[in-house]
From TrEMBL:
Source species: Aspergillus niger
This protein's name: Pc13g01390
Gene Ontology biological process terms from the UniProt entry: DNA-templated transcription; positive regulation of transcription by RNA polymerase II
A GO molecular-function annotation: sequence-specific DNA binding
Keyword terms: DNA-binding, Nucleus, Transcription, Transcription regulation
Positions of the Xylanolytic transcriptional activator regulatory domain: 236-309
GO cellular component, one term: nucleus
Main location: nucleus
Pfam families on file: Fungal_trans (PF04082)
Cellular localisation: Nucleus
Region Disordered, residue ranges: 1-36
Length: 598
């Protein structure tokens, strides 16, 4: 048995209309009796839960589907194999350490000082920035009510200005606006942080928040998103959980009657509910935790088309979020839900396949076009889709990394014995390459998101799986030098914009890269094989004009070697999913058993 890295401590653990047809509520689920139980389990969830401590007395749970947790598990396994010792935690990144908020969270003696409030025209500029950067993905405030209160606020004298829930909401929106409009962070502190901290200090108890559930839920969502951007994941998850419970207590998850509650209130509640739902799915997945609510109990309808300009965006966003539940089945307790985890991958991919054509049709990405700008929303949805594919399939990549660490001489030959399993791993890597390509296109047009975390999450998750691939089989990924250089430049773009989380994540990526290179170097020395493609990007610079494009300072047309095939169509992905048979699951199970990697 492979022992877990010492730094990771394993502990034992104790009546209305239905939603519109455009949002699927039925997914492909193989009958329970179709597949007999298998010994194969997902290695990311088999055994007792895993924890890690930075040595300061706090312990962090390594959630099963968490991107951060996956990278930490890979880094720990490779380090222990290469150095025959546990991974030291001193050089690792733990949440909440990227920024100094200048506040310890205590509300016993809040600062009496009021933050600097911008002029009305500046405030409107900041609010419009928030609308552009967030408004197409999330509902953060009701425009008509918020702006009415804004003008009323500025019409009052300095001493008579109100200090209610709207004021707290206003401070947080201003903090977002400053984050989005400032190019550089000053003294390591994000712009607008004083506004955010002041809002937290004067946030009232829930007994008062429940008296105004709509604006209170909007405020809690704003806080959750802001905390997530500061890499305070646990705090973020807690606030979105509060928002979920407040929304449900107010019945926002139900089919709210318009005749009794009024059109405006119902429309606002619908927007709030689906924002809470989306945030909950995102943040529980990032934490590697179960979702807060079962889809079977949700009856809320989408906002009416005349009340929302972003209906198509929201529709696809919800569909992608609902697919997370299917992916989580892969990470269920003990790695199975009465089926093998490989067959759970089949079910998750079948459900994702149904979205591929709609996504490509409604949100086309023309990455090779030189005369059309990229849609920020389309790019976000495509990145989300590719992340779903990666999270669904990367347990297989981890399986074969563990085989590689135990038995390097047979890893490639073993992988070649099942073309279906190899295709699934290739699908995972292709999705990672698509993510890098999309992010590269965004960066070349100045559209890279450097504050909110979704671009960084896509970059991080993609880079980790692409680094692992050559250790398993150097033929799995082409264009190795290109994607690696592109990823480094995108990381650097984020760091130069002041994103300290990107700097720390990049540091861990570099650690993993160095350890995998050491692993491959030892393999080459023992087998006298030529330099792997993975090592090539560090052994030789990229040749001039190899991948010329605006982001690299070359001409405007990427070289042919840098372009990737478009994403799989629905039919192609369904064919891939349907190719997975019980034979493949049993074959992988036999491989796990033969190499004693559990």
């Amino acid at each position: 048995m492979v022992s877990k890295p010492g730094a990771i401590a394993s502990l034992s653990s104790a009546s209305c209309e239905r939603p519109p047809e455009s949002i699927p509520d039925n997914y492909h689920t193989p009958p329970e009796g179709d597949y007999p139980e298998s010994e194969l389990v997902n290695p990311l969830v088999s055994g007792p839960p895993a924890f890690m401590s930075p040595g300061n007395g706090r312990t962090y749970y390594l959630g099963t589907s968490s991107n951060w947790s996956f990278a930490r598990r890979v880094l720990s396994a490779v380090h222990e194999h290469a150095h025959k010792e546990s991974l030291p935690t001193e050089a690792l990144v733990f949440e909440g350490t990227a920024y100094d908020l200048g506040w310890d969270g205590s509300r016993t003696d809040p600062s009496p000082e009021s933050p600097v409030i911008p002029t009305l025209d500046h405030a409107i500029f900041l609010i419009n920035a928030v609308k552009f950067r967030c408004g197409q993905l999330y509902h953060l405030f009701d425009d008509s009510d918020f702006m009415k209160s804004l003008y009323s606020f500025y019409s009052e004298g300095q001493r008579t200005r109100p200090r209610g829930l709207w004021y707290i909401h206003f401070l947080i929106i201003l903090a977002f606006g400053k984050m989005f409009t400032h190019v550089k962070y000053l003294k390591g502190k994000p712009p607008g942080i004083s506004l955010f901290v002041k809002a937290l200090q004067i946030l009232p108890d829930h007994t008062l928040l429940y008296s105004s559930p709509m604006v209170s839920t909007e405020i809690l969502c704003c806080i959750a998103i802001f905390y997530q951007a500061l890499d305070c994941r646990t705090a973020s998850h807690n606030y979105v959980g509060q928002a979920m419970r407040m929304a449900m207590a107010h019945g926002m998850h139900t089919c709210m009657p318009v005749t009794e509650l009024g059109r405006h209130s119902v429309e606002r509640c619908r927007k709030i509910w689906w924002t809470v739902y989306i945030l909950d799915r995102h943040m529980t997945s990032i934490q590697g935790l179960p979702q807060s609510v079962d889809d079977r109990f949700i009856q809320a309808r989408l906002p009416s088309p005349e009340g929302s300009e972003n209906m198509t965006n929201l529709d696809m966003h919800i569909k992608l979020c609902r697919s997370i539940a299917d992916i989580n089945a892969i990470y269920a307790t003990d790695g199975r839900l009465n089926r093998t985890f490989l067959l759970n991958i089949k079910g998750a991919l079948s459900n994702l396949a149904g979205l591929a054509d709609d996504l490509n049709k409604s949100f086309p990405l023309r990455l090779e076009a030189t005369d059309n700008g990229l849609s920020r929303v389309a790019a976000y949805l495509h990145l989300f889709y590719q992340q779903c594919v990666i999270v669904a399939t990367r347990p297989l990549l981890f399986c074969f990394l563990k085989i590689r660490l135990e038995s390097a001489e047979t890893c490639v030959q073993s992988l070649q014995k099942s073309q279906n399993v190899r295709n699934l791993i290739k699908m995972c890597l292709d999705s990672a390459l698509h993510c890098i390509r999309i992010l590269h296109g965004l960066a070349s047009q100045g559209l890279l998101e450097t504050f909110l975390t979704f671009d960084l999450e896509s970059l991080f998750i993609s880079t980790v799986v692409l680094l692992i691939a050559p250790a398993i089989d150097c033929q799995l990924v082409a264009n190795d030098a290109w994607w690696h250089a592109a990823a480094d430049l995108i990381f650097n773009d984020m760091v130069e914009a002041g994103n300290q989380i990107a700097r720390l994540r990049h540091s861990e990526i570099q650690q993993l890269d160095e350890k995998l290179n050491l692993l491959l170097l030892r393999q080459d020395q023992s087998s006298s094989e030529p330099l792997s493609s993975h090592e090539a990007h560090t052994a030789a610079p990229i040749e001039e004009n190899t991948c010329s494009d605006p982001f690299f300072g070359g001409d405007s047309t990427p070289a042919a070697g840098c372009a990737f095939e478009p994403s799989l169509t629905s039919a192609e992905m369904m064919t891939m999913a349907n190719s997975i048979e019980l034979f493949d699951a049993e074959w992988v199970s036999t491989m796990m058993d033969n190499h004693a990697i559990w």
